[in-house]
Design brief:
The structure holds 2 protein chains of 2 kinds. Chain A is α+β, with helices and mostly antiparallel strands. Chain A contains 15 helices and 13 strands. Chain B has a single domain, classed as Fumarate Reductase Cytochrome B subunit, CATH 1.20.950. Helices cover 61% and strands 5% of the residues of chain B. Chain B has 7 helices and 2 strands. Chain B has a two-stranded antiparallel ribbon. Chains A and B meet through helix 1, helix 14 and helix 15 of A and helix 1, helix 2, helix 3 and helix 6 of B.
Chain lengths: 544, 213
């Protein structure tokens, strides 16, 4: 065999190798294509197929609902005349009690207990009447009975206003008033006959405007979810799955699945396959723990990274959400009067009665280890005013196998605290003696603390605080999923501050990197010097 | 200068294996350092994909190499020795600048000088296998629980070992690329690894201990 032939054969072998390597490229492409066929999505779509309407009753045909209602209680009684157990059930739920638990350690948490936040701070044991506009009873009294229509009527009515007006106009007695009263009665009757499971606007009537306005509290819940596009929310999008809230917030005996104060939304991670009656409240309920295509690296993340982290790249994508609230600037007057200013979103960014706000859209969440439980301080708990006080914070850590790295909205505030007792203070805001009327902190704080049965030294100042909301709604279409290098990067990655996990691309061992590069540089320097030496002494070689 | 004669030194498989491994290692170094965050070229995701596929390919190809080394008896070329080691070191430190001949001429039966033997043994038997093992563990991170490793192995430890190996291979590559220019001409060694034929000085006697077979 001559050398040319050998050369030819060798080149043939190289070509064969390149061909084999080339064959691997389509395999790579196939793997990418397979990622599009996520079994977890298929499974969820099968589990949530839309059913044709199957109700066996038409509420407009029930005699009990054809009567002329005079009060809210009349309507509730009509409902209960058939749904005999509904009130008893509902009275046990947190929607009614506003307490994490009726007794035990958790009883102190809740709007009706001693929980507080860094928005309107506290409901002051329901002394703050304006808070009660969201309580699902008739009127602002806790004794007024439940309002079934709040959650079950498909008509949108300001219920408390309607029944108040009805009473007032009926009592006035003149012809015009009675006409108006008749109109209101007709409206209420129509509302009482148009009944169904809670729809998005029922839940959203309170939850989209928590904190007293659209998108104030949650970055992932606002009125844009009443008729969302698929781009805003893949589950709720009217051009997509068109889910109502209750599709995931499943219900047993009026208890609606979801996180409340100290209690996580789910204590175990089960899919429908493992337990077909499980609450559908977690992503895994329908999508399983390994929803991506087999062999996809994304499946290798689900043990440490929450689904929401990659699938909700930004919150408040349509409407702005409130990011900060500084109570310490409240009380300024213009020409002796209260006033407000607006920001570029048309949102109020200063109110004399509330202080300064900032709003933001397309907010990048902050990320923390989270096992589903949110911890919080109450009005009775001591704080350390030396630094930023966490009013609520996610529980969890890298050692806890139930913890995942999850996205949060962090709302930052400045709010009053007691310099002597070292507790956060709960001012009374609404009503004639509330801060919003008086602009007098001392009076409002004394009233609020008294309503909660808590002491007040009279010496207050403002302290910086944080309050967290898990970000879980507004799941984006798969094209918007976070790219790997949003987190796997050295600089300003999303998970830059998440400790306890080694992340390639983000983490390195400084000493090893230094030694490594010194060795590489040393090698380069060594061969460079050796090469120079050879060049300089090259002549000698010729002589030998 | 003594007369040079060509000898057929590297068989087809050896050359194929050398260049395949060279290509695999080059790709692994580039994508590996990108995954490490040193620079941005393919993007993290693609760098990981390529690194994984090439790494697994290397693992399989290396098994063939191990098989070849065993069946052909070529493993004897890697048996370490201290004989003539001092002379070889002295040649690269002093002799090469004086135009001396290499104290260890290459022959079919003895392809590697004592320093090469040691280097390539360390490379083929220690550094590369360790790199493959740590790489495989890194790749299989999510199976650790099933493999019974999660209790005592940390990803950071595996990452540190894998990185240390990467730096060592990069250092080897720097020196190796330089050393191939130290033949009787700058390109002599490279040519030999492509064609298989190396020019050596005529009439050198190979001592029996140097012979591989």
């Amino acid at each position: 065999m001559n050398r040319t032939m050998r050369m030819t054969r060798f080149l043939a072998a190289i070509a064969a190798t390149l061909w084999v390597l080339g064959a691997a490229a389509p395999a790579l492409a196939t793997a990418t294509a397979m990622a599009a066929d996520a079994p977890g999505r298929t499974m969820a779509q099968q589990a949530t197929k839309a059913l044709p309407p199957w109700n066996t009753t038409d509420h407009s045909k029930h005699d009990a609902l054809k009567q002329e209602f005079k009060t809210g209680k009349d309507i509730t009684d009509a409902c209960l005349s058939c749904h005999s157990e509904a009130a008893a059930q509902f009275h046990q739920t947190i929607h009614w009690t506003w307490q994490a638990s009726p007794q035990g350690e958790e009883a102190k948490y809740g709007k009706a207990a001693q929980s507080l936040n860094n928005f309107c701070i506290s409901a002051n044991r329901n002394e703050d009447q304006s808070c009660l506009s969201c309580h699902p009873g008739w009127g602002t009294s806790l004794d007024s009975g439940i309002n079934c229509l709040n959650c079950h009527s498909r008509k949108q009515v300001n219920w408390d206003e309607a029944v108040e007006d009805l009473a007032a106009f009926s009592e006035a007695g003149d012809e015009e008033s009675l006409e108006i009263a008749a109109e209101i009665r007709a409206e209420l009757q129509a509302a009482a006959q148009d009944i169904g499971r809670p729809e998005r606007q029922n839940c959203g009537g309170c939850h989209f405007i928590g904190g007293g306005g659209d998108g104030v509290k949650h970055g992932d819940l606002d009125t844009s979810l009443i008729k969302p596009s698929k781009a805003l929310d893949v589950h709720m999008g009217v051009d997509g799955q068109n889910f109502d809230c209750t599709r995931c917030h499943t219900t047993t005996q009026h208890n609606i699945a979801g996180r409340v104060y100290t209690r996580p939304a789910a204590t175990d991670r089960k899919s429908l396959i493992e337990d077909d009656l499980t609450a559908k409240i977690t992503c895994e309920s329908c999508h399983s723990a390994t929803p991506h295509a087999k062999g996809s690296k994304a499946n290798d993340h689900t043990d440490r990274v929450a689904c929401q982290t990659c699938h909700i790249p930004e919150m408040a994508r349509e409407l702005p959400t409130k990011m900060t609230w500084d109570w310490s600037t409240a009380g300024k007057l213009k020409d002796g009067k209260t006033y407000y200013t607006k920001d570029e979103f048309g949102k109020k960014d200063y109110l004399s009665i509330k202080g300064s706000f900032t709003w933001a859209k397309n907010v990048r969440p902050e990320y923390f280890w989270y096992n589903g439980t949110i911890k919080s301080v109450t009005a009775a708990d001591m704080i350390d005013p030396g630094g930023e006080v966490a009013v609520s914070w996610p529980e969890g850590g890298p050692e806890d196998e139930n913890s995942r790295i999850a996205p949060f909205k962090v709302h930052r505030g400045r709010q009053p605290y007691d310099k002597v007792h070292k507790t956060l203070l709960v001012p009374l805001l609404s009503g004639n003696e509330g801060y919003w009327k008086t602009l007098d902190w001392q009076g409002a704080l004394a009233k609020g603390q008294a309503a909660n049965g808590l002491p007040y030294s009279g010496d207050f100042d403002f302290v910086a605080t944080t309050y967290v909301f898990p970000t879980t709604h507004m799941v984006a279409p798969k094209e918007k999923t976070l790219a790997c290098n949003e987190c796997h990067t050295r600089d300003d990655g999303r998970l830059q501050n998440v400790a306890g996990v080694y992340m390639p691309g983000r983490d390195r061992t400084g000493l090893l990197d230094m030694l490594g590069w010194v060795a590489v540089a040393g090698s380069l320097f060594g061969v460079f010097c050796h090469g120079i030496g050879r060049c300089l002494t090259n002549g000698k070689r010729e002589e030998s | 200068m003594k007369k040079m004669v060509p000898i057929y030194l590297y068989t087809r498989y050896e050359r194929f294996w050398h260049w395949l491994q060279a290509a695999l290692i080059a790709i692994l170094l580039v994508t590996g350092f990108e995954v490490h965050g040193t620079f941005n070229l393919l993007g993290f995701e693609q760098a990981v994909n390529v690194h994984n596929w090439v790494g697994l390919t290397w693992l399989v190809a290396f098994a063939f190499f191990v098989f070849w080394v065993h069946t052909t008896g070529e493993w004897k070329q890697y048996v370490p020795t201290t004989k003539k080691m001092f002379e070889v070191i002295r040649y690269y430190v002093i002799g090469i600048f004086r135009g001396e001949s290499h104290p260890f001429p290459k022959r079919k039966e003895a392809k590697h000088n004592p320093v090469q033997r040691l280097t390539y043994l360390a490379l083929a038997a220690a550094l590369l296998p360790v790199q493959m093992l740590t790489g495989f563990l890194y790749w299989g991170y999510n199976e650790w629980a099933a493999w019974g490793l999660s209790e005592w192995l940390s990803l950071e430890l595996v990452a540190v070992l894998h990185m240390a190996g990467a730096f060592a291979i990069l250092c080897f590559l720097v020196v190796h690329l330089y050393m191939i220019t130290t033949g009787h001409s700058i390109t002599a060694h490279t040519k030999a690894m492509i064609t298989g034929w190396e020019d050596v000085e005529e009439g050198v006697v190979i001592e029996s201990w140097e012979k591989a077979s």
